[in-house]
User: Fold this.
Amino acid sequence: MVPLVDLARRFTPSAGELHEAVDEILRSGTILLGSHTERFETLFAEYVGTTHAVAVSSGASALQLTLAGIGLGPGDEVILPAMTAVPTASAVCAVGATPVFVDIDARTATISHDSVARALSPRTSAIIGVHLYGRPMRNTNELTSFGLPLIEDCAQSHGATHGLSGIAGAYSFYPTKNLGGIGDGGMVVTNDADLAERLRRLRAHGQREQYLHVDVSQNHRMSEIEAAWLTIQLRRLDDGNRRRRTIVNHYREEIPDISWQDNDSDHVHHLAVFLSSNREVTRRKMSDSGVMTGVHYPLALTQQPAMMKFATNPCPEAENWAARCVSVPCFPELTDSEVESVVRALRISAT
Ligand SMILES: Cc1ncc(COP(=O)(O)O)c(C=O)c1O
Assistant:
C-alpha cells in the first residue's frame, strides 16, 4: 500500500544528528528553555519574517496563549471557520471565550470574508483564519479591515506565508506537519514586542522572574530536545515543500478533471485534497488500487458533538466540504513510483 504518511522515512535520515544533539543536551544539564530553544526561536522568526517567535508546547497552546495574550476571556466572541481541526475552536473555549463558526469559500476551503461580515457582533473580539491544508487564505487584508485582531492559524502552512498580516501566527509542530517534531510542539510568531513578552510569561506559569507570578497560566514549555530536532528539520523544510508541490502539481496535471482544492503558487500542500461525489466508493476503489486515503475532516465544527452548541450560523459550504473531502498521499519522501501509483489509482477511482 502507498501510505498516506510515513514518518519513519522522515525520521531515520536525521537520527545521527539528533543523537549528537541529545548527547550535548544531556551533558549540558539544561533540558527546558535553554540555548536550543532560543536558537530555534531566532531561526524560525527569521524564516517566517517576524521580529519575535515564542516556542510553546503545541499548536493548541500557541493559539490559546495568543488569545490569552491579547486579553480575551469570558464575554468575548472569536470568529473562526467551520472547516478546520477542532483545536482551533478548543483554544477559544480554553480562555473562556465563545467560538463563532462561519462558512468557508467553496473553492479554497478557507474562511469567507462575507461570512465573517455577517457574523460580527458588538462582542466580536478577534478573528482566527486558517491556512487550511497549507493553502494561504489570501484574504487577510479584507479580514484585517474589520479592525479586529486577526490571528493566523498556521498549523498546516509552514513556509506558505512570509511575514504576518495578523497580530500573530500560531504554528503546530505535531509530527505529521510539514515541519514536524518528535513530540508535540508549537510556536507563536509576532511583530508585537509586548505580546511576545506576555507569551514568554504565559508559557511558564505566568512567571516574570523566578517565583514571581504576575499572570495566571500553566505550563506550555517546549523541550530542548524538541527544539534541537526542529532546528535540524527546519533546514529541510523548503526542499520538502518543493517536493510536495511537484507531487501535487503532477497529480493535478494528470487528473485535471476532479475538484481539487483551489491551488496557489505558495501552497505548501500539507495535505492534497479533492472533493468526491461519492467518498465511500472513491476511498474503497483507491484502497483496492493499493493507495491509502484520509479525510480531513469528516465533520465541520458545526457538526462536532462538543462544538454544536456554538453553531449559530449556517455553514453549508463547510458541511459540504466535510461530506466530500478526500486526502491522498503527499509527503516529500514518496518515491516517484509511488506517485505514479497514486495517479493510476486516482484515474480509476476519483469522481
Ligand atoms: C489547523 C490546526 N490548528 C491547530 C492544531 C493544533 O495543533 P497541535 O496538535 O500541535 O496542538 C492543528 C493540529 O492538529 C491544526 O491542524
The longest strand covers residues 124-130.
